[in-house]
Write a structure and sequence with these properties.
The protein is α/β, with parallel strands linked by helices and about 280 residues long. The protein has a single domain, classed as 3-Layer(aba) Sandwich (Rossmann fold). It is built from ten helices and ten strands. The strands form two sheets. The protein has an eight-stranded mixed sheet, sandwiched between helices. A two-stranded antiparallel ribbon has the order 5-6. α8 links the parallel β9 and β10. It is globular and about 55 Å long. The structure holds iron/sulfur cluster. Iron/sulfur cluster binds next to loops.
């Protein structure tokens, strides 16, 4: 409850992003955070609005750049829990370079992608996660490009925490976000979050029919990278749960020389207007 603010989301009724917002708020409360321990950074897209809907520090950045900003926040204040967020277009098209390097850097932040396999904010174009044959305004004859297998790509880039979930599974999604926050290193959580307005193929029913829960696979071992890759390939990436976690590899924070042990800046969230204006003047 304490992570709610007074801003009403303007997502379309039924958009999967509502559940992601709720799951982040619940997970933050469950791991014992207070709003001023949390920073939520987002990129551009419908999902990018999420940083304004959670009571915390927030930064609504530019397209594809939530990760550089989030990493900067974490470097400036190691005490903050930092969540980067955005859509599949934001993170896996223009932002893909940042995604791969943040993964291999293993910096201690949680990246939550709301994957609806389409560009929603710009009214429905094919995204890097759209399947072959997907028809949109930008591909009226059907897309001829293969969708990026982001979970597989994360594994090969050296990821230490790779998970996938579905926005209707609020309980599972909340617990995965908690695990991602508690993970010491970079956690990538891809959430299938349907766009009910523009994606009429990858609907809630479609995901219910196609997603395989890792909890139903006998002897699945999330510490086994080879098993994780094989399971993803066998199921065309359509699995949900914690796919892979390496609890041993040190994070960037553990290894970086000269990383400040103290926060470089601390500001009370309940700023007076006068103090806010003063801060803005200092930054200008
Ligand atoms: Fe959600 Fe799609 Fe509406 Fe955007 S256009 S708010 S992604 S349902």
């Amino acid at each position: 409850k304490e992570f709610r603010n007074s801003i009403k989301p303007n997502w379309c009724p039924g958009c999967g992003d509502f559940s992601v917002q709720a799951a982040i708020q619940r997970a933050a409360a469950n791991v014992g955070l207070e709003p001023d321990n949390l920073a939520v950074v987002s990129g551009i897209g419908c999902s990018g609005r999420i940083s304004g809907y959670i009571k915390s520090y927030g930064f609504h950045g530019i397209h594809g750049r939530s990760l550089p900003i989030a990493q900067g926040v974490k470097m400036a204040n190691r005490d903050l829990t930092v969540i980067a967020s955005g859509g599949d277009g934001d993170g896996f098209a223009i932002g893909m370079g940042h995604t791969v390097h943040a993964i291999r850097r293993n910096i201690d932040i949680t990246y939550i992608v709301m994957d609806n396999q389409i560009y929603g904010l710009t009214k429905g174009q094919t995204s890097p996660r759209s399947d072959v044959g997907f028809k949109t305004k930008s591909t009226p004859e059907g897309s001829v490009e293969s969708a990026i297998g982001v979970m597989e790509l994360a594994l090969t880039a050296g990821a230490t925490f790779v998970a996938q979930s579905f926005s209707t599974d609020l309980k599972e999604l909340t617990s995965i976000i908690e695990a991602g926050i508690n993970h010491k290193g970079f956690s990538l959580i891809n959430v299938f979050s349907p766009c009910v307005t523009y994606n009429k193929v990858n609907t809630y029913d479609w995901f219910k029919e196609h997603l395989v829960s890792l909890s139903t696979i006998e002897n699945y071992d999330s510490s086994n990278r080879m098993m994780a890759m094989q399971t993803l390939m066998e199921n065309k990436g359509l699995v949900k749960g914690i796919i892979y976690q390496d609890k041993v590899k040190p994070s960037y924070q553990d290894l970086a020389h000269g990383y400040s042990k103290e926060a470089l800046s601390k500001v009370d969230l309940n700023l007076s207007e006068e103090k806010f204006n003063q801060l803005m003047t200092e930054f200008m």
